[in-house]
Each structure stands twice: as structure tokens, then as C-alpha cells.
Amino acid sequence: MEDPVEYRIEKIRQVQLNRKAGMTFASGLRSILRQDPDVIMVGEIRDSETAGIAVQAALTGHRVLSTLHTNDAAGAMTRLMDMGIEPFLVSSVMLVSFAQRLVRKVCPHCRMPQAPSAEAVKYWRLDGVDTNGFAVGQGCFNCMHTGYKGRTGVYEVLVIDPMIQDMILKRQSAHEINRAAVEAGTLATLRDNALEKVFQGITSLEEAASAVLM
Prior knowledge:
By secondary structure, the protein is α+β, with helices and mostly antiparallel strands.
């Protein structure tokens, strides 16, 4: 279910929403469940009604994929609870939570080595780290003099393991869940992944900072 359907995909049955006709995420999801689907993808969970039906679909053995507006991967659990989904249901149905941002890629035609400033070294804690792979675009005809051409994703993946399930049941905050997962070594944050792409020369320090630092 999408609003709107942006790309037609072969062998996938796609549904265009029409709120004026009463076709919402919630009503569409009810209809889809009667068709015995293998996988359900809901474009976005926007309200408690849609969240409740999506959870019920997951409880009955369907694989459900959807999106939520949150700051990080851990925020998906607390967002569902804010919508009225009980913690024991959230911990039962969630398998994994992804967070993603888009960053611009350094233009391959005008890229040049970038030496980070003293402020950047201090802020990103890069003391004693080899920064030879850092790059920046000078700006050229190919990138319309922006220094960037194309975009790539920065990702954070949180697997809902028994520790996270227990924290959900205790209604702990997204910040506490995030911190516990980082300390356990099971979560690489958006910041970590963005910095990794800087080391690979895919994007710049400035672009990474604008995307993941708040």
C-alpha cells in the first residue's frame, strides 16, 4: 500500500490509497489480510488504527514491512507504544528496526584529498586516526560546481534480541535502548556508519555532520 505508488514493480500487487473514497492505510490493510498475502508492505504507519492492524497482521504470521517517522532505529519501538500498542505486543512482533538518512556523494570527477580541521578532529574524536581517505569535491561542470554528485544511504540496524525485548517490556526510552545496544556491541549508529563512509571517501565530513548530527 502506497501513497502514491511511485514505481511499478513486477509480481508485486500495489495499492494506491484514495482517502476521499475511504481507502486509507487502515482500510486497505484490512482488505489485504483477506487475500492471504506472503509479505505486506505498508508505506507508512501514521496512526494508532494502522499500527494496531499491522501488529495484528504480524501476530498472525505475516511478514510486515513499514516505515515510521523517528530519529533513530530505537525510536520505532517507543513510537509504536506512543500510538497505543502495548509493550508486550511490540516486543513480540518486531524483528528488526532500520534507520536511514541520505547523504550526498563526493563528485568523482573533481574529488581531492581533504585534511580535516582541528575542530572536526576534536568533534569527531579523530586524534591519531589516519585520515588519508577523506575527500571533498572542488566543484566542476559534472556536479554543477557543488562538489557532490549522487546520493547514498547511511544506515543503522537494530536487531530486536532478548535484551531489547526486555527493555521494551519495561517501557524504557529510545535513548536507553540505543545506549544499551551500543554498549553491547550490537548496534552501529547512524553517526558510525556516516563516519565509515567518510573514511571510504564516499562523502565528506561536512555532509556527514549535516545528515546525522542533531
